[in-house]
Amino acid sequence: MNIKAFTREERAEYLKQLGQPKFREKQIFEWICRGAASAEEMSNLPASLRQQLDMESAEIELEQLSKSDGTRKFLLRFTDGNTAEAVFMKYDYGNSLCLSTQIGCNMGCSFCASTIGGKIRDLKAWEILDEYIVIRKHVGEDINHIVLMGMGEPLDNYEEVSAFLKLMHDPDGIGLSYRNMTLSTCGIVPGIERLGDEFPQLSLAISLHASNQEKRAALMPVAKRWSIDELIAVCRRHSEKTGRRITFEYTLIRGKNDSPADAAELAGLLSGMLCHVNLIPLNPVKETGMQGADRQAAKEFAERLERLGIPATVRRELGRDIDAACGQLRKKTLV
Ligand code: SAH
């Protein structure tokens, strides 16, 4: 009975069965969020209760530190032995942590290492929270921004991910504001719709990567299920409904989606929407054979978008020396 592996309601029920008063659950949740390693540390609980409680956490299996920018990439081992990645990054505005939501991924994007081998399983809400808790304790610094941009498709694990967001926001624990949480999706249209209703303050990022249906479907199988037109339509509704700026991620792949014509088509597609384009030169994954656009081409692509009225930036490629692209580190350890 791992005391972490419950929803708050389930934990309260379990404690009730042990004959404990109601406030115990809050005490334990506070300890969990503070990074307690075992029930022994929970000094405001009676010793007899502490002895009854088991606790297991995710463990850091591997850490890679980028010499160039302080990015730290972690491979975490969950209690069932499966592994997933998380990345700690430093920005001017504070520290950010990129979290995984699944072990592997089913989405099949052709340039991405996370999806090679498919999805093993969904992560539970408490396990996603555990990634944050374990890493924050390990780095010993506050982390005031999270992005769900690690392994997995968060909207393909909606229930656990939404429970996780609520746990992160819970004032009894970490209490992070929804604005400081970003969910990134490859474009699961009904999930985006639901997210806008249930978490209107959350920051939304869309992995777009192409400016028309044909090119997108060639890179991302999800586009065959929900077309680029349906995706853009739900994004327009989302930004109108929530008043929030949507980030479109666009990975520049040499010779595939990085021409001036691609930039012009992209500007047309996004025209008039409250949005921002984040350009990322592809981090090459050995298995895919694709190459990234060079820095200069990326800069020109961004300038072209800007001239056409679409705010765009080239993302700093943090951690390039440490396999920081989605799924690369885990992949390496599996072979
Ligand atoms: N499944 C979600 C969450 C993953 S986010 C999503 O698709 O948005 C990870 C981001 O990194 C996505 O934008 C993904 O398309 C991108 N990505 C994956 N592999 C990459 C690579 N090799 N180089 C650059 N970006 C990559």
Taken from the alpha-carbon principal axes, the silhouette is elongated
Listed once per kind, the bound small molecules are: S-adenosyl-L-homocysteine
Mean pLDDT score: 94
Secondary-structure element string: HHHEEEEEEHEHEHEHHHEHEHEH
Q: Major sheet, described briefly?
A: 10 strands, mixed
> How is the largest sheet built, in terms of strand order?
1-2-3-4-7-8-9-10-11-12
Distance between the termini: 33 Å
The radius of gyration computed from the alpha-carbon positions, rounded to a whole number of angstroms, is: 21 Å
Count of individual beta strands: 12
Helical content band: 25-40%
- How many helical stretches? 12
**How much strand?**
15-25%
The structure class reads alpha/beta
Poorly predicted ranges? none
Folded structure, characterized:
The chain is an alpha/beta fold and 335 residues long. The protein contains 12 helices and 12 strands. The two termini are 33 Å apart. The mean pLDDT is 94. S-adenosyl-L-homocysteine (SAH) binds next to strand 8 and strand 10.
